[in-house]
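Z., the sequence and structure:
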Amino acid sequence: MGHQKLLQPMIGTVLVLLFFVGCGAPTLSLDDAEAYYARGVAYSEKDEYDLAIAEFDKAVQLKPDYAEVYLNRGGAYANKGDYDRAMADCDKAIQLEPDLAEAYYGRGVAYNLKGEKGKAMADFDKAIQLKPDLAEAYAWRGHGYLDEGDLDRAMADFDKAIQLKPDYDKPYFARGTAYMLKGETEKAIADLKKFLEVSNHQLLRQDAEELLNALEAR
C-alpha cells in the first residue's frame, strides 16, 4: 500500500472551506457571487467537481477579489487531478489574502500530489506558522516526513493533528503506519482500530482492515 493511496482522499473533506450562505435566484449582483460560491461548495461536498467549478467560475466573474472562491475552486481542480490549475488558484488566493493559511495548505497538497515534495513542505510550514491550529496541515506535513523516512517527526505531526482534532480520521491511519514501520505493532493496531472507529471512507477502511488483519495475524 503506497502513501499516495493513503493521501489522496484527504483533499475532498479538508481543502474545501465551508462558508455557506443562502442560495438565491441569479440576479447578476455582487451578492449573487455568494450564492454561486455556496452552490459550488455544495457541489464539491457531493464530489460533483465539474459543477462546482462552473459555479465558482460564475462567482469570480462577479467578484474577482473573492479569495475563498479561488481556494475552493483549487480544491475542486485538485480532486480532478488538475494540480497545475489547483496551484494557480491557490496562488491567486494568496495574492489576494497573503495571510490565508488554508491557501498555503491547499497549494501544499497540490504540490505534494504532483510530487514536488520540497515545495509542499514549505507551504505546510507556512500554513502552520499562520494558523497553528490547522490540524490538516500537520497531518499532511507528517505524510511528507513519512515519505522522507523521518518517522519521529512524522509521528509528532500526527500526534499534533490528533490533539487538535481528535475525530480527524486519517492521522490515525498514518500514525498506525508509522508505528508499524517502527515495529511497534500493538500501537499500530490501536491506531488502525481507532481509524476504523471514526472513519467512513470506504476505500481507506478496506486498506486499514487488510493491514490490521495482517498485523493481528503475526
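The chain has two domains: 1-131, 135-218. The chain has 13 helices and no strands.

Let me know what you think.
H.
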